[in-house]
Each structure stands twice: as C-alpha cells, then as structure tokens.
From TrEMBL:
A GO term for molecular function: hydrolase activity
Region (Disordered): 1-25
One Pfam family hit: Abhydrolase_1
Protein name (record): Alpha/beta fold hydrolase
Length: 291
C-alpha cells in the first residue's frame, strides 16, 4: 500500500467513535497491524496538528490511528483536567475499536499517557515510544521555560504570546511558517479550546511544578518501573519543555528501555526532525516484525 501526503487529507482520514463518555475523534490511514499515535498538549493542538506530516509514512506499514484526547481537537470536552481524562479515554478507544495490545507512540502529554497505559494496562501496549514528556528534570529548574510561556498565553491569549510559546517548542524557528502559526492561532483562540487548556495549564500548575512533593516523585518512579513493554525514549537535545536530563530516570528505571537523542531539535521531534524521527521509530517498531 502506498500513502502520500496528497491522498491523506484531514477530512479524508477523519473518524469518530462513540464511547460512554462522549465521541472521540481520530484519524485513520493504512492497513496492517494497528499503531496508536497520541498527541501532546498546548494551545490549538490535536492529533492531526502533531502527526499529519508523519501519517503517510506510518500508514505504509500500519493501520495508523491518531486520537484526539478529550478537551482537544474534535473529541468531547471534559469537566475535569484533560490529563485525568486522557488515560480512561485511550482505554475506551481501544475497547471501542476492539483492539488488544498495540504499539503506542506519544508526544509530550501523549508520552506521559502512553507510559501510564503501559504501566497500568500492560496488556494494551506491545511497544512504547515516547517523544519527551516522561521522566523528571534532575538538573534544570522547574517549571521549564516552555511551560511558563504556555501559561502566559493561556492567561492572556494573544497571537504574540502564542508565537513566543511556539518558538520555545523548537530549535529552529524557521519551521514556524505563517501558515503553521495561523493554523494554531485559529484553533487556540477558540473559546472552548481555551477553556479546556486552562484546566491543564494555569498558575496552580506552575506552583505544583515548583514544589513537587515526595509523593508525586514516588508515583512517577513507580510508574516507570512498572513498564514492561520494550520502550524507545526519544528526546530533542534542545527541548525547553521537558529538558534532556529528564530522560535519565526512564532510561534507568524502565527495564527494556533504549534512548535516542535528536540533535538541533526541540520538543516537536516528529515535526522538526521529521525524516530522522520516522526512520528511527519505524526501525524500532518493525524490529523482529514482518509488518
């Protein structure tokens, strides 16, 4: 099967699944074994905005499913913090599609959710790939620059503040084209989208990150040690949201863990280092496989 950027459009791959909590929106392309892609958080984000450029490549090998978490994209809104709603929604999604164990790729928040899925529902994850988003920074101050700029945007959602946040997400700001920024601005400035992202990022979020207590750290360590799936942890060397030293704990604590670092790369490795990301992740997913 051949998938091209031209043939895989937003509307052409758009799907919806009804669950007990509401409709989950997702994109689907390709044949073969299933692969689940989970997006990050932030203003205007969705599964499509994170992975639209990667979908054609993954769809050549997998039935690729790109989920919108509750509170993001076109999935149902949630009264609670979207982070708390995400993991149950992924389980509902897998159940709704009748899927068992699948490889999961997660960026940022999606990596955190994927790690928790692997730890607490080990029968649902055959391989785990994360793009930032897990572990804990050991040497850099907390909260990091990217999260501070995100909260500033949420508190005063102007286009300039959105651009400032987007610039903190990448190493090379040249990829932030006018079209890219405008696409994010259109979705990020919608009242419903702002309301949902404010539940996740606010002054309380910053305070919690400044004063991370022992119980929070213990929970994170326990989660990492429970992950039994083969795991590839990837980071951008220049990540200003989850700094590179965040990789040290998962690299040590996840029993079957490998680490790949992309140079000249920020938090969006799947966008900023697209070709390297795709070749690295595909090689890992297809290892010992006939897919």
């Amino acid at each position: 099967m051949t998938a091209t950027v031209q043939s895989l459009t937003h509307d052409g791959t758009s799907r919806s699944l009804t669950t007990p909590k509401g409709d989950l929106h997702y994109h689907e392309a390709g044949d073969g074994p299933p692969l689940l892609l989970l997006h990050g958080s932030g203003p205007g984000v969705s599964g499509w905005s994170n992975y639209q450029g990667n979908l054609p490549v993954f769809a050549q090998h997998f039935r690729t499913l790109v989920l919108d978490f509750p509170g993001f994209g076109k999935s149902y809104s949630c009264e609670q913090n979207p982070m708390l709603a995400a993991l149950p929604a992924v389980v509902d999604f897998l159940d709704g599609l009748g899927l068992g164990s699948v490889p999961v790729v997660g960026n940022s928040m999606g990596g955190n959710v994927a790690a928790n899925l692997a730890a607490h529902h080990p029968d649902r994850v055959s391989r785990l790939v994360t793009i930032g988003g897990i572990g804990m920074s050991l040497y850099n101050p907390s909260p990091p620059e990217g999260i501070k700029l995100l909260v500033q945007f949420v508190e005063d959602p102007t286009r300039d503040r959105l651009v400032a946040w987007m610039e903190s997400m990448v190493h090379d700001t040249a990829i932030l084209t006018d079209e890219f920024v405008e696409s994010r601005w259109r979705t990020a400035s919608e009242p419903a989208a702002l309301e949902d992202v404010r539940k996740l990022f606010n002054a309380g979020t910053l305070e919690a990150m400044r004063n991370r207590d022992g119980a929070t750290v213990a929970t994170m360590v326990t989660t990492l040690t429970k992950i039994q799936a083969p795991t590839l942890v990837t980071f951008g060397r220049d990540d200003r949201v989850t700094p590179l030293d965040s990789s040290l704990l998962p690299m040590r604590l996840i029993p079957r863990c490998e680490l790949h670092v992309f140079p000249h790369c920020g938090h969006w490795a799947m966008i900023e280092r697209k070709d390297e990301f795709e070749s690295t992740v595909l090689a890992y997913l297809l290892r010992d496989s006939t897919a």
